[in-house]
C-alpha cells in the first residue's frame, strides 16, 4: 500500500540525501518494519518483458485518472507550503504531479524511440503516456519509477528538485557517501521521463551492459562491496534493465521486511519497484507468456489485442511459426517474416480461416496489414501473396505471381485498383485476376503483366483467362502499315487494334497463312472484327480491312468479300470453303464476281451476293451462259425443299426452278423484259403498225379483213402466219388511207379478202385491185363455212396433221388459237360452241386435211363435249381450258411454245378483237404466242406463260387506252 504523506515526504528527503535510483530508502527508515514479507519476487524475472515494454499499456486519460486517485488533494498553497518556499535545499514546486503542465519540445525518431511531437502546456499524464508509446516502455513502469525514485506520484506538495530529477536519470551514486551526483543538463520533468524511458529501452537495444539476460549474472547486494555478491540467472531484458538502472539485488532481509528495513547489506530499489507495481497494477507477469516477435507486435497493438488468452502455439506448416490468442485477436509470428495480427471479427480473419489459416493456401502472414484506400480497406502480405480486404467488395488474395506487378501499378489506389475476385488459372497454366480497373495475368511465356487497357474489353469478350488465344505475353507494338495500328501478342495468338476495332487470331496454320500474305501490311490488311471458328469443320473466319479471310485445313486462307461472307455463312456446312479468290465477270452495270467454293459458287453483283450450290439449278444456269447469259446475275438466294426435290432462284431476268419431276424451268421476270408498244391512232393504224413491225420490207401477199366485226376473220390469223402475210383491216365499204398506204409500201402480188360482201364490199375489192395484180375473196355462207374456206385456201389435202377448233360466237379463244396455229402450221376451224356436234363441213375438212390431232381452244362452255366427241373418232384431242379467256390463252401458249424458247411475246387486250386480229397473224408467222391480258395488269397465268418463253421483248398491241401503264410495266394482277 502507498505510504502516508509524512512518510512519503521523509522518504523523498532520504532519497535526495542518499542517492537516486540505487538503494532507494526503505520505508522502515521512518516507520516500524512491516512484518509481512514480500511474496512472488523473483530476482531473475522481476517483471515480464511483455509488461515492461508495453508502451500502450495506458493512455493519457488513464494515467491522469491514476494520478488523481493517488493525490485526491494537492496541498501546495496551504500554510507553510506556498510555491517557492525553501525546503531541504530546494523549494516547494508550483503544483503536484497530477496538476503539472509544461511545454515540451519535439524529438525526432531515433534508434531507440519513435518521434515525439512536442506541444504547449502538456500535462504530466500526457507526457508519461506519449513517452511510453514513443519509447516502448509501459506508462505503468514510468509511474512506478517516478514513485520509486522521487515519490512524485503520491506526493501532495513535492519540491522543484523532485521534478528536476524525477526519474533519477543522469544521477549516478558518485557523490559523497554514495549520494546522487546529478547532471543538471538533464534536469526537468520532460527530460527526465523521456531520457529515463530512452535509457531503459536502450539497455535492450544496444550494449554491452553489465547485466545480460539468458545467462547467470553476478550482482552485488549493496554498494558496499564488503556485503558480497549473488548469482542470478536473468531471464529477460526487462529484469536486466532494472538491474542496469539499479545494480543491486535485495537480500533476504530486505525481502522479509516487506516495505520495511532489512539489514546493513540490504538494498531496496528493485524490491520497491516490485512492491509499487504489484500494489498498484497487479502482477508483473502475464497469465500467459508473451515473448519474441509476438511480444513486440503485442506491445505496439495491445490497445485492440488486449490480454493474452493462451500461450503461444508453434506450427511447422508452410515453413513454421507461432500463433498466440489474445482477447481481441490473434498474432502470427512466422519464422520468415514480420509478426502481424488480426481481429477475430474482421472479414480478412474470417477469409483467412476459410483458406486454412497458416497451414492453408495463403500460408503465414509475413507483414502487418496496411490500410489503403480509406477506412476498412486493408492490404496484408502473406507467403502466397497479398490479401486485399476491399470494403463492401470482399477479401481476395493477390497471388505472389501477380503481386509485384500489382504493387508496381500502385496497389489498392493505383491504375489497376483493388481485386474484384480471386485469381483463376487457365487450361494452359496461366494465372489471371480481375481488378476494379483492369486485369493482371501471368504465364511462363510472358511473366506477370497488366493487360493493356486498350485491349482489355476485347480480350475479356474473347473469354479472358479462358480465351483460346490465352493471356498476353508481351508488350503492344505499333505499326504504320495500312493506316496504322497496334499488335498485342498472346499465348496462342495475336490481338490487333486498328481504326476498325480489335480481334484475335488463333495461332497455328491460320495465323501462319495470314502472316504469309504480309500480315497487317499485306493484301488482307488489319483485322477489324473477332475471329470465328468451327463454322464448318475446322474452318475459321476473320473480317479484315480488305475482305474476310476464310480458312480451312484443306483450302488454306482465301479472301472473300463481306457480302459474300454474309451469304456464305448460313450455308457454310454445305458449300464448304473457297477454292480460289473471286474472279471478275462482265463490265459496267453487268459487272460482278464469281467465286468457286468446294460445293458451289457465290455470285456477287450490284444486286448482292448469293450462293448457288452444285446441282441441276447451277448446271442449267451455266448452260444458259451464267452471269453474262440470258438469266443474268442472281438477285435472290437459292431455296430448296427439305427433301431436295425442288430448288428455285431469282435472277436478273427471271426465276429458275428445278423439280425432280419436271426438270428445269426458267420464268422471266417481266418487269425487267423490254417492252415495245405497237399502236396507232385507231385499230386500222394499229394493224398497219403491226404489219410494219412484222414486215419491214415487202410482203408477197396481204390479207384484208373487216376491222369492225370479227366472225369472218377469226381464222385468217392462222392463214397469215402460214403465208407470212400481214393482216390489214378495212371498213365494210371503204379502205382507210392508212391501210392503202401500207399496201402500197408492201407492194404485194396478191391480196386476199377474208369474208363475204357483207364483211368487205365489192367496192373495196375494186379499189384493192388497183393496188395488186391479183385480188381474191375467201368466204362462205357463214363464219363456220368461211373458216373451212380459209383452211382449204391455205392447206392442200392431206397437208395438216393438226387443227384448232374454236367457238365462232366469241373471238378471244380463236384469236389466241390463231397465233398458236401459225406456230404448228395448223388451220383454225370455227364451230358453234354450244352445238351437240361439229358441223359436217368441219368434220369433212378435218378428214380432207388428214388431221390426227385436234386442239380445242376453251373449256366445255366454249366448245361443248358433244363437239369434242364428234371430232375425236380416230384422232387425239387436246383441250386448252382456262378459268377465263386470259388463262385459256396462257394454256394454249404453254401447250404450243417450248419453255425457254426465247421468243417475242405479243400481248393484246382480251376484251377487243381488232388489235389481236392483226397482231396474231404477225405473231404466228414469227413463232410467237399471242396472250390476252386486261387493260391495266397482266393476269397471273399470262404472266407466268410469258416468262416461260419470252426472249428479248414483249410487244403490246394497242395504245395506252387499250393497254395502260400497268401492263407496260409488267405489273402482275393480284389474285
TrEMBL record:
UniProt protein name: Cell wall binding repeat protein
Gene3D superfamilies: 3.40.50.12090
Entry-linked InterPro entries: Bact_Sporulation_Assoc (IPR051922), Cell_wall-bd_2 (IPR007253), LGFP (IPR013207)
Taxonomic classification: Bacteria, Bacillati, Actinomycetota, Actinomycetes, Micrococcales
Pfam families per the UniProt record, alphabetical: CW_binding_2, LGFP
Domain of life: Bacteria
Organism: Leucobacter iarius
Signal peptide extent: 1-35
Coiled-coil ranges per UniProt: none
Keyword terms, alphabetized: Signal
Signal among keywords: yes
